[in-house]
Amino acid sequence: MTENTDKLEQERNESWRAELRNSMPMKDRVAIERVKMNEIPPEERIKSQTCEVNTGLTEEQAVLEAKRCMDCPKPTCIEGCPVNINIPKFIKNIERKNFAAAAATLKDYSSLPAVCGRVCPQEKQCEAKCSYLKMKKEPVAIGYLERFAADYERTSGNTQIPKINAPNGIKVGAIGSGPSSLSFAGDMIKLGYDVTVFEALHAIGGVLKYGIPEFRLPNAVVDAELDNLARMGVKFEKNFVVGRTASFEDLKEAGYKAFYVGSGAGLPNFMNIPGENLNGVMSSNEYLTRVNLMCANCDDTDTPVMHGKVVAVVGGGNTAMDSVRTAKRLGAERAIIIYRRSREEMPARLEEVKHAIEEGIEFLNLHNPIEYLPNAEGRVAKVRLQKMELGEPDASGRRKPVPIEGAIEEIDIDIAVVAIGVSPNPLIPACLKGIKVTRKGTIEVCEETMQSALPEIFAGGDIVRGGATVILAMGDGRKAASAMHDYLSKK
């Protein structure tokens, strides 16, 4: 019966997709210009931490952009998606204005489509594989369309629940509630498992809540995705530190048969230069967590964050952009990015750099901090910078920044935020006897299965990669869910 149903579904899809292909000549599809995302003007959005910059596509824009998709016989865009979404299927459903079917297709593969449509680097993944690039044209706006379909479902009030197998009574746990664990939990609940997600903090969502500002990813969007998982049957335990609140052995005695460790990488990296311990120098982790999760910008908060007229953020990634744009919204007169390479080599998404420039962020490229200097009260007052130039390419393929001898300058600052990466918190690996870790503290796993040296422990996301995008972490979660299902089925 299932095979026949699948066959009918396939034939029906082939029928309406053929109808769509015949409804417009290919030359007319190719001639359509890529849609532009609607945005709040910079002078308005910098007034609020919670004003989302991108406002999404209208129905007319989404349908027109969907018409650009050529419905390739061998869709290479799917190869670029770490969670393997059937991209042509969901886009063609948008073209025929069946937005609910588009959203349902997304949820068959992704537990967080509204999140991914906002924060995933589509330009380096699915869109980088789009056939339009071979014609030297802009790729289909897959990310914009993913956001549109997910948002349409959420705002319509008709949220769909994916197909879920009958419960099998087997309990599994996910450590951490970031995107990797949530992706794992979504797939495992569909397979019929009894899934509990353990979160150390007082809010579920991990980096989606504490690390990404609301002007880029509103909490209401994350909460809607979490509510959907809860409706599917996923359980959440907050303020639960695995290894402290309860050990793995305690959880095994409670009936848990396997675990997925997606605890992220929350240990900030510093440069170990003079003055980093001064008051006013902090990590991006602390800065963003205080603002995003602990209401540090509120007047009556118990955990305020320092405000400054001149805020320097060290780094060139998305976290650095989030930090410097947050500083601007907190009232900084000058918010400055300090990065040792050129702007072209910054790892941040092009969209984030564009938004930062529009909002008046200053860029000091080819500069590297070498010392922080205090005022009379012992608070940071200046940063000493070494000017750099680009030399030969290093292991990353980018040209290595080289100091220019004698080229030193100082600038006055009130606050310095260091956003140069993170390392895994050692708590989870330390309480797993027999687990193998790298010299960087990440858990060693089989790349194909995400299974560790302890057969019942799987891991993925930043605790394995050391630092990754939301969608790569989600891909790890999906891979681990499939492999854990095989492991438990055989066991």
Structural notes for this entry:
By secondary structure, the chain is of the alpha/beta class. The protein has three domains: 12-45 and 53-156, Alpha-helical ferredoxin (Fumarate Reductase Iron-sulfur Protein, Chain B, domain 2), CATH 1.10.1060; 171-266 and 424-490, FAD/NAD(P)-binding domain (3-Layer(bba) Sandwich); 269-418, 3-Layer(bba) Sandwich (FAD/NAD(P)-binding domain). Helix content is 37%, strand content 17%. The chain contains 19 helices and 15 strands. The chain has helices spanning 2-23, 26-31, 42-45, 59-68, 76-79, 87-95, 99-109, 113-119, 142-156, 179-190, 207-210, 219-232, 248-253, 284-292, 318-329, 350-358, 427-430, 462-465, 470-490, and strands spanning 171-175, 194-198, 235-237, 256-261, 267-268, 281-283, 310-314, 334-339, 362-365, 367-374, 380-393, 399-412, 415-418, 422-423, 457-459. A five-stranded parallel sheet has the order 3-2-1-4-15. Helix 4 (59-68) crosses helix 6, helix 6 (87-95) packs antiparallel against helix 7 and helix 10 (179-190) runs parallel beside helix 19 (470-490). The mean pLDDT is 94.
